[in-house]
Amino acid sequence: MLRSERDDAVNRLAVFRDETERLKVDQAALFKVRAEMALLRQQTNELSRLAAGVRQLRNLQRVDEAQASVQPLSVLSDLERCRDNLRRISAAVEQYALEKKQVQGEKVYPGDILPYLVKKELPHCPAGGIYSLRGVGNDATCSMDGHTL
Ligand SMILES: [Zn+2]
User: What is the radius of gyration, based on Cα positions, of the chain?
Assistant: First the structure.
């Protein structure tokens, strides 16, 4: 072999080695990118799972709020407000009987007790029931089912 040919072969071998090293580095970088992508995919899945969880929680919260605002405030407080009205009416009857010296069981008319009521008017059942006066010594009643003192 001529000296120059040998040098040439050595040079080419060196170039080949460099190339191999570079390819190794490229491959390592590629593996790293692949691993990062897998991690990203995993994180994306986790994020969408979390987002779904948050949506579910929000829906539950909305249901809770809807129940809180609909049930106790409309149904329950109608009854509570009606009871409050019945107590006021009965108190007015008592006061009227006391001032007018009425005896137990004597009939009482709405006009009799108006002066003892707020705004001088008979309160109304919030659920549309009709109030009846049951005479001196008896509590007023509401015609709505369950609206009792
Ligand atoms: Zn009522």
Answer: 44
